[in-house]
UniProtKB/TrEMBL annotation, chain A:
Residue ranges crossing the lipid bilayer per the database entry: 22-45, 57-84, 96-117, 162-182, 194-212
GO cellular component: plasma membrane
Chief site of localization: membrane
Record SUPFAM superfamilies: MetI-like
Lineage: Bacteria, Bacillati, Bacillota, Bacilli, Bacillales
Protein name: D-methionine transport system permease protein
UniProtKB/TrEMBL annotation, chain B:
Swiss-Prot/TrEMBL keywords: Amino-acid transport, ATP-binding, Cell membrane, Membrane, Nucleotide-binding, Translocase, Transport
GO biological process: amino acid transport
InterPro entries the UniProt entry points to: AAA+_ATPase, ABC_transporter-like_ATP-bd, ABC_transporter-like_CS, ACT-like_dom_sf, MetN_ABC, MetN_ABC_transporter-like, NIL_domain, P-loop_NTPase
Molecular function terms, GO-annotated: ATP binding; ATP hydrolysis activity
Protein name: D-methionine transport system ATP-binding protein
Domain ABC transporter: 2-241
Amino acid sequence: MLSGLFPNVQWDKMWEATYDTLYMTIISTGATFILGLAIGILLFLTSPHQIWANKVANFITGSLVNIFRSIPFIVLIILLIPFTKFLLGTIRGVNAALPALIIGAAPFYARMVLIALREIDKGVIEAARSMGAKTSTIIWKVLIPESMPALLSGITVTAVTLVGYTAMAGIIGAGGLGNLAFIDGFQRSRDDVTLMATIVILIVVFVIQFIGDFITSKTDKR
Amino acid sequence: MIELKDISKIYQSKNGEITAVKNVNLSINKGEIFGIIGYSGAGKSTMIRLLNGLEKPTNGTVIVNGKQISSISGNELRNARQKISMIFQHFNLLWSRTVADNIAFPLEIAGITKNERSKRVKELIDLVGLSGRENAYPSQLSGGQKQRVGIARALANNPEVLLCDEATSALDPETTDSILELLLDINKRLGLTIVLITHEMHVIRKICNRVAVMEAGQVVEQGDVLQVFQNPQADITKNFVMQVSGTKESKESIEQILANYPTGKIVKLTFIGNKTEQPIISRLIKDFGVEVNIVHGNISQTTSGPYGTLIVQIDGDDVKVNQALHLLDQQEVQTEVIDHA
């Protein structure tokens, strides 16, 4: 029945593209989580009245985040071509998409991390300090666990955005469902391929959102 | 134990300098419960945070437990803080951790092994009366239970000093009393020095040995609790004493009586210790034939004995009334004639 509705869809190609999309999304989400968290924590700790309060460091980090957040993703990919080539020796394939995906998403996530950390009760940080906690202890045992639900719902939103980014990266040759929809669907006027690729992307997004919401609610003991 | 010398704390703000604490000298003895009372903005929050180095004084020195808190930093300060614990008005527990894990947190900071930690946590849970609730999350606890967790957490590393930052201000009166009793019990059993700040004279009366009254960053009065209650000097102290003696409410009735009986004298009697149990009023009536009308009466318990106030109207022959007042003076009962409310 499916082959009747989607006569031009080659399922092995569709699976391969899905795999590529998932691969790019998962790796870039993982790296964005770590990098965004680090930048977000740095932004938080250097902001006024915090442990590392430092106007210059805060301004520089904040500006870099804003600059990279403001560049449209498609432009960022092009700007990063020399960097990617230097790093990986190629600008084609799923791995070549990763630097742009991570650099595009990490500043976005860093802002969400900052918002999450600001929501932590100041008193809890003060309590940890009053017990003689080191800054590293405060980061690992107070900041991250106490903001975990917000960090997780933030990374869920970011992962969904990254699915969209992988589709854009696909257009310039990274592979994945976006690439399939553009090359096989749009350029060859096979609307059923484009439609099927869209459906698969939608399913991926729904699954990510469901898993994200589930884990978020599990960690929230408030 | 704790020594504050010429402490000032000045904050820089956009609108200029704000003096939070001004020329404060205090010394607190080992094993006592010392209260600092003041209205909000009096500088008491800053004061208590000077004691564990969360705030650094602009001028002066803070010595706690032999360490000069005002000048040490880094590891030395962090190690000192493990012996100067703090509990908070809003408890400041980690919502992401269970009761047991919250209490274990300072032990983790101190680098205690896992086995030792769980042993100590069990002891502490028993001490504060939370057995059976060790796996609950803070959100599942009542305010009083949360403060018990806070106290257990504060006691984890066997501190020398416990700082209480408005520890009962968010609790209802009954829970407040049970927490105060727990603090008193800990103070007696462990010989812990307790410094607390509050705006409730009730708290001071109930557990403190000595008290300092703060207003606009300065200590305006300090001394033994009973002495301050009996003979408050500063206006603000008188106000705080009224909070517990209930004389504030009687103001209206005094006005009423002053208006209705222009002849007699309204006298406020303050008793302390055993004097509260003497039959003074009946002696006044029998010996001098004056009329005594009770306007207001109150007795409160402090850690060093009972404290009572009685407001009476004494009416009759002028000479007799004066004789009666003279007798009261001789009884070591403090008398104060009120001629306006």
